[in-house]
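DM from R.C. (forwarded with permission)

"hey, sorry to bug you on a friday — could you get me a structure for this? deadline for the figure draft is monday and I only need the backbone to look sensible"
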Amino acid sequence: VQLQASGGGLVQTGGSLRLSCAASGRSFSTYSMGWFRQAPGKEREFVAAISWSGGNTYYADSVKGRFTISRDNAKNTVYLQMNSLKPEDTAVYYCAAILGPQYSDYAYDYDYWGQGTLVTVSS
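My reply, with the result:
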């Protein structure tokens, strides 16, 4: 499966953005999906994940209550709604796909990756 992330940009502290990740192929609903991010000089870190049906979600503590992951299997798309953004949310955001119903917060578990979209939060 090929993944294309979009929706990044420049936003002020407290603002919102919605990231999208469009997947190619007809098997999108057989993949659980995750969002990761990587800030300059830092390692890639887990942000959120959603099971293949959308029935289960999981968040990093740093974004819990501010970010919401969702998916539309009819549109082969996963979303990340980001509210109350902080400067420390600045990073390149990547979507990733893992085959099967079980999502993961471990990057090496994921089979496919999108190219990343830059989110910059100004103070």
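R.C.: lifesaver. The CA atoms of residues 18 and 81 lie 4 Å apart.
me: no worries. The chain has a mean pLDDT of 96.
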